[in-house]
């Protein structure tokens, strides 16, 4: 089997996989791809166009012509900077909804694969190792306890790790987990050839080092 020069990092929402993947890519001089961003962009674009997320035909048409541009750390949709706008819990739920639509997944798959060049790639998402890059050199399933993920998200947006607002974050994360695990198409789960990395009690630097150590072994 011809291996691809790819590190595929999959895992649930708010697990820190994006931060880890970006830092690993920087350390190796590889490109970085957040595959989930394309689903979030599709959900946001559908919302802006007044298209219901469950409308497979119309959402897939939008996915095919998605006017998205990745510019460094910024993401533009139809010329508008939506780097922060696609990171809300509501759009996360929308991404989970459109990700269950076969025609949408098909429309985005080739676009995701097109990010791989000879330079090498670190990609994160929910099915990067199983569907997008099944021949990746290293596959990792990165996770953490749901409450810890909620605490990290709360700190990220500057709210206390208790109270009604925090409870909503935790509830949203658990609902997204449930939806991702139980979807018919490419459900979120650890693949047999992926290494498990539970970061519940690990910092970012320690996690990045672990991934780099594993990559040097392959």
TrEMBL record:
<keyword id="KW-0963">Cytoplasm</keyword>
<keyword id="KW-0067">ATP-binding</keyword>
<dbReference type="GO" id="GO:0036430">
    <property type="term" value="F:CMP kinase activity"/>
</dbReference>
<dbReference type="GO" id="GO:0036431">
    <property type="term" value="F:dCMP kinase activity"/>
</dbReference>
<feature type="domain" description="Cytidylate kinase">
    <location>
        <begin position="7"/>
        <end position="215"/>
    </location>
</feature>
<keyword id="KW-0808">Transferase</keyword>
<dbReference type="GO" id="GO:0006220">
    <property type="term" value="P:pyrimidine nucleotide metabolic process"/>
</dbReference>
<dbReference type="InterPro" id="IPR027417">
    <property type="entry name" value="P-loop_NTPase"/>
</dbReference>
<protein>
    <recommendedName>
        <fullName>Cytidylate kinase</fullName>
        <ecNumber>2.7.4.25</ecNumber>
    </recommendedName>
</protein>
<feature type="binding site">
    <location>
        <begin position="11"/>
        <end position="19"/>
    </location>
    <ligand>
        <name>ATP</name>
    </ligand>
</feature>
<keyword id="KW-0418">Kinase</keyword>
<dbReference type="GO" id="GO:0005524">
    <property type="term" value="F:ATP binding"/>
</dbReference>
<dbReference type="InterPro" id="IPR003136">
    <property type="entry name" value="Cytidylate_kin"/>
</dbReference>
<keyword id="KW-0547">Nucleotide-binding</keyword>
<dbReference type="GO" id="GO:0015949">
    <property type="term" value="P:nucleobase-containing small molecule interconversion"/>
</dbReference>
<dbReference type="InterPro" id="IPR011994">
    <property type="entry name" value="Cytidylate_kinase_dom"/>
</dbReference>
<dbReference type="Pfam" id="PF02224">
    <property type="entry name" value="Cytidylate_kin"/>
</dbReference>
<comment type="similarity">
    <text>Belongs to the cytidylate kinase family. Type 1 subfamily.</text>
</comment>
<dbReference type="GO" id="GO:0005829">
    <property type="term" value="C:cytosol"/>
</dbReference>
